[in-house]
Amino acid sequence: MITTINMTNNQDELERFRDMEDLRQFCTQYGCDGIEYMRIPGEADIPKDMIQGVHLSSFQNWMDLWLGNKKRLLEEFGSMEIVEQFYGGTSPGSLIEKFTKELDYAQEIGAKYVVFHVCEVKIKEAFTYKFDYSDQQVIIEAARIINHLLDGKKYTFDFLMENLWWPGLNFLDPAMPRLLLDSVNYKNKGFMLDTGHLLNTNLNLKNQDEAVAYINEILDRNEGISTYIKGIHLHQSITGEFVKSSRNHIPKLKEDYWERWCQIFEYIFQVDRHQPFTGKGLSRLIERISPQYLTHELITRNRQEQEAFLRLQTDALRDSH
């Protein structure tokens, strides 16, 4: 199993380490083989030999651009100028161009896998949980994009599709991940199971032991596709009470799109907290899945907190109870 930490080339993250050798030693200290990398264009890159996987850009609301629904785009963004700022263009080809550049980069550096989010949510929907698109609609269109990106290419990496808790891939209906697998042509396809995102689909969880049991229950429900779970983003987020309370107190959204974006960004990271997963039975859960890749996908404020979170989670993985 290849184990990594998640990282970008954002200067704030890089400044935690004296140099790249310090980063290498940090990974080794916590039993990690390198980095799962989300690359920010224009910044200095992490050395390619440290990168095991590449997390592709995440557009959580892409369906309207992909389907050419200008009316809904304007309702969400306010103007086509902001649409262009957000996506880098105003046509479906903008998505294809951006993802193709990232896939070509992943192939060039020899990444073993890439990660692609399969979900759709607008800012207001993230608060209200009232969605324009169904799981099936999102999965069908995501498969179209993926096939457009991969058909005829000679990529060698695993293409791993990640679950969220919004419409798309969320593992709640076993027919949906099966539909996604059947619809994607690429040979080296699979799933990146994000444990924290999966926990966000159950607002009644009270503790981490319940969280481990819930993930096992979802795996039982999706038994037919379990061999396609090639990777795990490991973390936990038990925030159901916060979400239920928030749905009764939806904030007034700002008029300006970028101010609304800041509102939702802050809210999402209160829901999806990326904290250490230490529930009883965690090591057996990982053994059950037997992934090829495991990423400690933790969100931390500084190196001291990152070390503390990694220590907790790696200790939990060694626990045989």
Note the run of SSEs as H and E: EHHEEHHHHEHHEHEHHEHHHEH
Give the fraction of residues assigned to helices: 40-55%
Q: Termini, distance in Å?
A: 21 Å
Strand content: 5-15%
CATH architecture: Alpha-Beta Barrel
Number of distinct beta strands: 8
Backbone CA Rg: 19 Å
Q: What general form does the structure show?
A: globular
Number of domains: 1
Please tally the helical runs, counting DSSP H or I stretches of 4 or more residues: 15
Instruction: Determine the CATH topology.
Output: TIM Barrel
Structural commentary:
With 321 residues, the protein is an alpha/beta fold. Helices cover 47% and strands 13% of the residues. β5, α9 and β6 (189-194) form a beta-alpha-beta unit. The longest helix has 18 residues, at 92-109. The radius of gyration is 19 Å and the shape is globular. The mean pLDDT is 96.
